[in-house]
Design a protein that fits this description.
Number of helices: 38
Helix content: 40-55%
Structural class: alpha+beta
CATH class of the largest domain: Alpha Beta
Oligomer: single chain
Number of domains: 4
Largest sheet: 5 strands, antiparallel
CATH architecture of the largest domain: 2-Layer Sandwich
Number of strands: 17
């Protein structure tokens, strides 16, 4: 190349590295700016990634020329620079590593080669670039490509950037010739195993609401794996394009190009917004990337939710492509597999008889179709295929999976009303071997959403809040799987009550159908519960369900949040609460169904959401309501009976504290009970002390006895959702002593101030809501608050109650991700129900001011909060507090 005179001048300067870096930076940044502008104009992501790679190519070419022609010239000393790995593929994200191979001949060379490599490295580091590199001889590069699967993968995509092109191309020819003559089965198996290991780290569930764009299931790495497999079959083909064309249909190739373009677009935006090589699409980045990509809100669905739905639909397409390639590989016998005879012997050894319809067969232990046109003769066979796969307890062969996708157009309104199709769906819901697995397969093919349009509307749907770990469809499928596990006794240790109750349910089909449809109303204009009831009725009528069962399913869908509401935010020891709940439920069968459905619904929200405290509340409410339905008299609980010794000690010592770690790892809260003489501000002092010690209060029961003794019991966790002090019991003992001091001397307090929170939490704009009800119970005022959760919030609320001369008689603490939703039963200091409307209105204003305190984002981050989605969390602003069931 002809060197720019300014480069020669820079290389002659005293500060060679600095001068060269300064010169090269200008052109490099200009190239990156061109890529950024193309991205902002809506350019295809893969195209933009190539522009970033081209900017790096130009930089390295010029840097190499300075190093080899100006600083360390030696015409006879052979040296080559190659791009390998992802960069070798000719694509690059803004902050990705530059993967480089410095190649020398097999014979020893002068120290000049080391000088060139060192200079190139230092300049790249001066430019702030991360480099992943290797310096190998020709022989080393060949041998390691043959022995190391990872190095072989990087060499499949290698290309020469600068230097001795003959040396570099000779290496590529030799490596590719060896690969071409080698059986690719071992390489393909290694890549698939590598994928499995990777997904175990990033999460094997595709629809996690904060996905890893690069390494997660359905992400770019899955598409890269298909490239590598194609190249292992045809290593001479430019970037595997020809080989992929042989493995995928024209429609699938279009899907591949769309997916890779979209995912690269998301990844590049993510790097630019984060200012670093960030691959996880966390909540704090999602709204800004949605805005940059042009998404807008529609109706009740936020722009960020629409964007993330598109993301998960694309991730699902990637899964379909992976299965399609697997099918072609097996057809070409390119992939290791179980023997056909073993699959058949396994089938017939179990005496399962003939297959459901002509055209089915078992190949390598999986159910497949002999002809994709088998469904055209009778489209109901699409559903029967999954019933048969479940009956045999085997997976679908990729051929069958692909055939279903290509036959979705056969599902017409007539098919949706076919009784055989309805029977198949109900069978899979209530009588299948593994409902989660088989329904997930149906969902991945798109058949479940095609057959049930109500379901199709929630596929890939997200809710912009921290409470839910999965998309709506994945959450529902997991809930169905949990019910099945409860029925089979797999969760008896966690849910002993539900494991008994489920076998007393008369109509399990109605329960499972309600579970399938319980969230189909999300995103509707009339609210989740009302729209859900309408959609559930329409789906049931089309399925041919009899009217009596339809009413039961619709009732469960429209009331599926009822039990968790009452259990977590009402005083279940109060007979009035139990009677109101029983009146809303109506009969014992509904109660049993609601119990099982509620347990599964909460547990399926995400890891760590269910805990023993919630289970205790649910069981208490169920037991009391069941007793009421059976004609027994329900009386209030005196929590003092369980703590008589503690109360007795407090009479003599002034205060007594009792701490308890959970009896088993399955109940995830520690308990701390305090008995002392009641006084103004007592609950506030305790809440402040707990907050300062890093204890999260997940439940509290408070009682003041006639002799003035206050008994306050707290269920607490640490900051990561584990029982407080579980791994370090000394912490719990220290907390007990701190509470004793707070009772006797008061707690340390500070003026209300803005709290600095994580970026993931700061992104959510949580509207503060306060509702005060004077009618729900005769002996107290019920105050419900909802707002952004933060450390110390409960103690601030308690201080406000104390300032208004109000005493907290019962507190019900709940958090839904970023949102705190708490309910308090308040009396005056004499134990009477407050009646001063002016006082209660002033209290409301003070509570709103506390809830409205805006948190600070982390240092160095400017964050524009986005309204948090309220669907499926306690939206207390929607319905007034009353004796009727509250809708969230």
């Amino acid at each position: 190349m002809t060197l720019d005179p300014r480069l020669i001048e820079a290389a002659s300067a005293a500060d060679v590295r600095g001068a060269v870096a300064a010169y090269l930076r200008e052109g490099f940044e200009a190239g990156r700016e061109r890529a950024r502008r193309r991205l902002e104009s809506g350019g295809d992501g893969a195209e933009v990634a190539r522009l970033y790679a081209e900017a790096a190519d130009k930089l390295l070419t010029e840097l190499w020329a300075v190093a080899t022609e100006v600083l360390y010239p030696h015409p006879k000393d052979r040296l080559c620079l190659l791009a390998v790995g992802g960069y070798g593929r000719g694509v690059l994200a803004p902050y990705s590593d530059l993967d480089l191979l410095f190649l020398r001949p097999s014979t020893p060379t002068s120290e000049r080669a080391a000088q060139v490599v060192e200079f190139v490295h230092y300049v790249l580091w001066d430019l702030g670039l991360k480099v992943g590199s290797a310096f190998r001889s020709f022989r080393q590069a060949v041998e390691q490509s043959q022995s190391d699967m990872t190095i072989r993968t990087t060499m499949l995509e290698a290309r020469v950037i600068a230097g001795d092109e003959r040396l570099g191309n000779d290496l590529l020819k030799k490596v590719r010739a060896w690969i071409r003559e080698t059986d690719p089965k071992a390489f393909i198996a290694a890549k698939m195993e590598e994928r499995d290991v990777r997904l175990k780290k990033t999460g094997s569930v595709r629809n996690r609401v904060e996905p890893n764009v690069k390494d997660g299931k359905g992400g770019l790495r899955d598409l890269n794996t298909l490239f590598w497999i194609a190249l292992s079959i045809d290593p001479d083909n430019e970037r595997g394009k020809g080989a992929l064309t042989e493995l995928l249909s024209a429609r699938e190739m279009r899907s591949f190009r769309e997916a890779i373009g979209f995912l690269w677009q998301v990844r590049i935006h993510l790097h630019l917004v984060a200012g670093r090589a960030e691959e996880k699409l966390t909540f704090d980045f999602q709204p800004e990337i949605a805005r940059r990509m042009g998404w807008r809100g529609r109706g009740n669905e936020l722009a960020v939710e629409r964007f993330m739905r598109r993301y998960f639909l694309v991730a699902g397409q990637v899964g379909g492509l992976t299965r399609a390639v697997s099918a072609q590989l097996e057809a070409r016998q390119q992939k290791r597999s179980e023997g056909l005879s073993r699959g058949l012997s396994r089938l017939f050894r179990r005496g399962r008889g003939q297959l459901a319809f002509e055209g089915l067969s078992v190949e390598q232990g999986r159910l497949t179709v002999n002809n994709p046109n088998v469904f055209a003769r009778d489209p109901v066979r699409l559903l029967m295929l999954f019933v048969e796969a479940d009956r045999l307890d085997i997976d679908l062969h990729p051929d069958a999976f692909t055939a279903v996708i290509r036959s979705l157009g056969l599902v017409t309104p007539a098919v949706r009303r076919d009784p055989r199709a309805s029977d198949a769906v109900l069978h899979l819901l209530a009588r299948s071997r593994r409902p989660y697995r088989v329904l997930s397969l149906m969902n991945e093919t798109g058949l479940l959403g095609r057959f049930l349009p109500e379901w199709g509307r929630i596929v890939g749907q997200t809710q912009f809040n921290m409470y839910h770990a999965y998309t709506v469809d994945e959450h529902t499928l997991q809930a169905i799987g949990i019910i099945d596990d409860i029925k089979k006794g797999k969760l008896e240790a966690d849910h002993p009550a539900a494991s008994t109750i489920i076998h007393r349910i008369v109509d399990p089909e109605a329960l499972m159908l309600a579970m399938l449809l319980h969230d189909v109303g999300k995103g509707g204009d009339r609210g989740q519960l009302e729209d859900g009831a309408i959609s559930a009725r329409r789906a049931c009528e089309r399925l041919g369900i009899d009217p009596r069962r339809i009413e039961l399913v619709v009732w469960l869908v429209s009331h599926h949040l009822l039990m968790s509401d009452y259990a977590q935010k009402r005083d279940v020891s109060d007979p009035a609460t139990v009677r109101a709940f029983a009146e809303a439920v109506g009969d014992l069968e509904r109660l049993r169904m609601l119990m099982v459905l509620t347990v599964a619904d909460i547990r399926a929200v995400g890891p760590g959401v269910w805990n023993g405290w919630k289970g205790q509340l649910m069981r208490a409410l169920f037991d009391k309501t069941e007793a009421l339905f059976k004609g027994d008299t329900v009386t209030g609980d005196d929590i003092g009976d369980d703590y008589a010794d503690l109360i007795e000690r407090a009479r003599f010592a002034g205060v007594a504290v009792e701490t308890a770690l959970p009896q088993a790892a399955l109940e995830s809260t520690s308990r701390i009970a305090v008995a002392t003489n009641d006084r103004k501000g007592l609950f506030a002092d305790m809440a402040a002390t707990l907050s300062l010690a890093g204890a999260d209060i997940v439940g509290a029961r408070l009682a003041t006895r006639e002799d003035g003794t206050a008994l306050e019991i707290f269920e607490i966790q640490d900051g990561v959702g584990a029982a407080y002090g579980l791994n370090e019991p000394r912490r719990l003992a220290l907390l007990g002593r701190a509470l004793e001091r707070a009772v006797l001397k008061g707690a340390r307090t500070s003026a209300q101030q803005a709290h600095r929170v994580t970026a993931r939490r700061a992104i959510f704009d949580v509207h503060p809501v306060v509702r005060i009800d004077t009618k729900i119970v005769p002996h107290a005022v019920v105050v419900e608050v909802s707002g952004a959760d933060r450390p110390g919030l409960l103690s601030e609320l308690a201080r406000a109650f104390s300032a208004h001369d109000l005493s907290v008689r019962s507190a019900h603490i709940a958090s839904f991700g970023e949102r705190a939703v708490d309910a308090f039963y308040l009396t005056d200091m004499k134990g009477n129900k407050p009646s001063d409307a002016g006082q209660l209105d002033r209290l409301r204003q003070d509570l709103i001011a506390i809830l409205d305190a805006k948190p600070l984002a982390p240092e160095g981050r400017t964050i524009t909060p986005v309204r948090a989605s309220l669907r499926d969390v306690s939206d207390i602003d929607a319905v007034p507090v009353s004796k009727t069931p509250r809708s969230r």
